[in-house]
Amino acid sequence: MSRISYFSEAEVRAVAAKLRQNRIPADVIHIDTGWFETDWRCDYRFSKTRFPAPEKMIADLKRDGFHISLWQLPYFVPQNSLFPEILAKGLAVKDAKGNLPYEDAVLDFTNPATVAWYQDKIASLLKMGVGAIRWISAKPRRSPAFYANGRTGFYEHNLYPLRYNQAVADITRKVPAKISSGRAAPGPAASAIRCTGAATRATPIPAWRPSCAAAFPSGSAASASGATTSAASLPRLPRNSTAAGCPSAC
């Protein structure tokens, strides 16, 4: 169950109660862009004013059969509290002069330090009991971006979502699940999910990118517009490589 967006713990609890009261089948409540202190401004922290006890909320809802899914993204506006840290630690994509190529700081997932920093943020949410992390279909502009692996945005543009998804999927495998009693349980804590739009028709793999389909069979086949897919099904992608034989259009 979701909308854009639930903005408070009280609203989430009310929706969950009505679902059960009216016997509407549901086991996931997705909180979209409104769980931060400022709507859309992702800092991986629940608003202290509108979600005063997120861990208790998650535990209570889990006892009632609900898992919590959270929206987040790898772009950070200058007003974001994480923006200075990202710049200071060199975690963002740069231009040829070492500056930001865009107004926002965009995480560079070819940089192992960036992946570790990002996964630490996600892990803290999973340890609270969050059941799913939604990743958006992020795709920075091709130029004038330069990545830590030495590639430009021309090469990394379409690989960015795969690296981003892999970072989410890997950490969800590592963090143990937290059951309603608060004890750790075997297995991954959460799922990594993707929703790319409202359409339901599967998008065929274009004829001009057969080598990409061969290199990333799960990712290419699962690029269904509007479909929700598991990032855990994506193949592992070395951070310092591109798809072998991948044409420039890809």
What does this structure look like?
The chain is an alpha/beta fold. It has one domain (2-76, 112-136, 159-233): TIM Barrel, CATH 3.20.20. It has helices at 9-21, 54-63, 83-88, 112-128, 153-156, 160-174, 210-215, 217-221, and strands at residues 2-3, 28-31, 67-72, 75-76, 105-106, 132-135, 176-178, 184-188, 191-195, 228-230. A hairpin with a 5-residue loop joins strand 7 (176-178) and strand 8. The radius of gyration is 19 Å and the shape is elongated.
Please list the strands of the largest sheet in the order they lie side by side.
Answer: 1-2-3-6-9-10
CATH 4th-level superfamily: Glycosidases
Q: List unreliable stretches of 5+ residues.
A: 179-190, 192-250
Structural class: alpha/beta
Straight-line N-to-C gap: 35 Å
User: What is the C-level CATH assignment?
Assistant: Alpha Beta
- CATH topology assignment: TIM Barrel
The coarse overall form would be elongated
Radius of gyration: 19 Å
Query: What fraction, in percent, of the residue positions are helical?
Result: 25-40%
How many E-type strands?
Answer: 10
Order of helices and strands: EHEHEEHEHEHHEEEHHE
The fraction of residues in strands falls at 5-15%
Helix tally? 8
- Biggest β-sheet: count, sense, barrel? 6 strands, mixed
Number of domains: 1
For the record, the CATH architecture stands as Alpha-Beta Barrel
- Report the average pLDDT across residues: 76
Brief descriptors of the model:
single chain; alpha/beta; TIM Barrel; six-stranded mixed beta sheet; disordered C terminus
